[in-house]
Amino acid sequence: MFFHLFKTFKINFLNRALITTFTCLGAIACNTATTPPTNSSPKIVTTFLPIHLFTKAVVGDTGQVDILISPGTEVHDYQATPDDAKLLAQADVLVENGLGMEEFLSALVANAGNSELKQIDSSEGIEAIEEEHEEHEEGEHGHDEHEHEEGKHGHHHEEGNPHVWLDPVLAQQQVANIRDRLIESDPSNADSYRSNAEAYIQQLQQLDSEFQQRLAPVKGCNFITFHDAFPYLAQRYGLQQEAIVEIPEDSITPQDIQRVQQAADQYGVKALFTEPGIEDKRIQQISSDLNLPLEVIDPLESGETDPQYYFQAMRGNLEALLRACQ
Length: 326
What we know:
Strand order of the largest sheet: 2-1-3-4
CATH architecture: 3-Layer(aba) Sandwich
Mean pLDDT: 83
Number of helices: 11
CATH superfamily: Nitrogenase molybdenum iron protein domain
């Protein structure tokens, strides 16, 4: 009798224990299935290629970095889409060049309606160079020429020339700004941001040293560009950019060639510079008529999205400058 009661008690106890065990395991399993994994990395969006390169260099493997303007699209030609507004609506951080480069941005951010979005101005603290197009915008083409300049590469920026990323020293400041502001918005990944930024800044310092050493023998070299994108680069290394010409929409006139000739004579210009992907026979015509070499210099608004592409493109620019200025 006693044995039978003990056996019954033992079976009931084991049953309750098993039920309790399976219940706990089920609760754990259910809890695991319904709780999403924690993602400590912010959703970051950049505006265009050079800022994307710098931001990706700082972020590294810590998180995903998206880009608004596809490489190869002229920033001033960019038209925002509903998908772009949605991207910003879901983002935590937006990184921009600043200095008026992204004129479209305020309206796009407003349309996104993301009150939590943190914006990083990578050019914070950088003193802008005044744009020099005004002294050339009147001339043989008068008002029509000025309108074309505003519509192509002669965009007027109230805050000064925004092409600071083409100076390896100012690029270091942009990377540091991105690093510091990301740490403020995402302190949990501060160590990663610091170490990644330090490594990239060291590469930028090496690039600066290369430019200094190799361009020192050609200091004072003058060149003409068809895009006012290189005043910071020229100023940094003792060169002179003369961005005084915009290619008209119609055919080049003798007056256009005369303007370039006058600039070439006045400033002792060594070469003309065009940009990657521009196969304009009119520029080649000017080069041929004036017997000036034509080189390609890259403003880094198109190309690869790997952060190392910056160094590839800039070293290509260095070689082009050396060929032109020898």
